[in-house]
Every structure is written in C-alpha cells, then in structure tokens.
C-alpha cells in the first residue's frame, strides 16, 4: 500500500460549531473516543464558534492537547473568545483569508443588588480565568505590545493575515477535505 493511501486512511475530517459549553465538551469527548477506536491519527477540524464558558474551553484545550489524536484546526469564519483557546490546541492551525479571530478578557454580570462579598468572588474568578487563558495565549502566539494593550481593556480582532503574523496560525489556507471523504459533524 502506498504511503499516500496509508495517510488518507489515518486522517479524518470534522466540523465543530456552536457555543463552547458542557454540551460541546460531551460531543468532543465522544468524538475523540470514536477517533481513537477507529485508528484516526490526524483529525482536521473546522471550528465555528463565538465562544462560551471559560472552564469548558480550558477543559477542551487540555483534553485535545494531550489526546492520542493529532488535531489540525481550521477557521473558515469566526473563532472568538474562549473558542480561540480551543483552536490553539491544534498542532497545526489554518484560517481562510476571510476568517477572523477575537480575544478578550473574561466578563460576568452580577445579580442586581449583589453584596460586596459576592462581587469580590466574581472578580477573583474573572482574574483567575484571565490568568489561565492569558498563559495559553502567550504560550502559542506573539502579539505586538499595542495588541496586548488592546487585549487588556477591549476586544482584540485579528484577520487571518494578522493571525499569521502573530503565529496563531501556520498559514492562510482553507478547510478543503479531499473529494469523497466523509465529513463528520461533532
């Protein structure tokens, strides 16, 4: 059997969309279990998500980064907020020319009439989330000082070209499964 045929049999193609939440965590756990059982070595995953819950995104980042399957991530539209951390779990990462990324600090809404001790707990939780996500961002990407300054207080938007300069992606390229492959939705 040729090496090219062997590689095709160990690669698989997937789409993953929606909010980063406990439902997505469950779907990804199930999908990776199936990948492992079916001998998938490399999973090509197109992600479309505007974000969700920080803890769920961190769980997925840690799980996929240490999975027996190698992940190649793609952005063909928008990967934002905690979904960027999920995206960074890929060993290789690509984005379409028209794709965008957005990163920002954590945020929360307090209940009306919340007492100072409750507000303090919320603030401490947000600071902990920001420290965890920023350490992952700094491990994988190289933003300019001006970009880090924007990230400190606002939403930082990156085009595919910006993401390449920041080393968030390996190259500007489309999710393009070979003709005839089965594309599974996670």
Automatic annotation (TrEMBL):
Gene3D superfamilies the record matches: 2-enoyl-CoA Hydratase, Chain A, domain 1 (3.90.226.10)
InterPro entries: ClpP/crotonase-like_dom_sf, ClpP/TepA
A Pfam family recorded for this sequence: CLP_protease
Lineage: superkingdom: Bacteria
Segments traversing the membrane: 71-90
Signal peptide as annotated in the record: none
Protein name, as recorded: Peptidase S14
Originating organism: Massilia frigida
């Amino acid at each position: 059997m040729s090496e090219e045929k062997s590689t095709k049999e160990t690669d698989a193609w997937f789409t993953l969309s929606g909010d980063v939440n406990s439902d997505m965590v469950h779907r990804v756990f199930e999908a990776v279990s199936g990948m492992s059982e079916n001998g998938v070595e490399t999973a090509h995953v197109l992600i479309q998500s505007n974000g969700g819950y920080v803890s769920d995104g961190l769980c997925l980042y840690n799980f996929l980064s240490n999975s027996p399957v190698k992940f190649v991530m793609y952005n063909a539209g928008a990967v934002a907020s905690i979904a960027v951390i999920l995206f960074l779990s890929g060993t290789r990462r690509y984005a379409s020319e028209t794709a965008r990324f957005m990163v920002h600090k954590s945020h929360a809404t307090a209940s009306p009439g919340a007492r100072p001790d409750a507000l303090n707990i919320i603030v401490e939780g947000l600071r902990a989330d920001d420290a965890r996500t920023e350490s992952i961002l700094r491990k994988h990407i190289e933003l300019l000082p001006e970009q880090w300054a924007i990230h400190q207080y606002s939403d930082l938007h990156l085009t595919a070209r910006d993401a390449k300069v920041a080393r968030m992606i390996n190259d500007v390229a489309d999710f393009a499964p070979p003709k005839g492959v089965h594309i599974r939705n996670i």
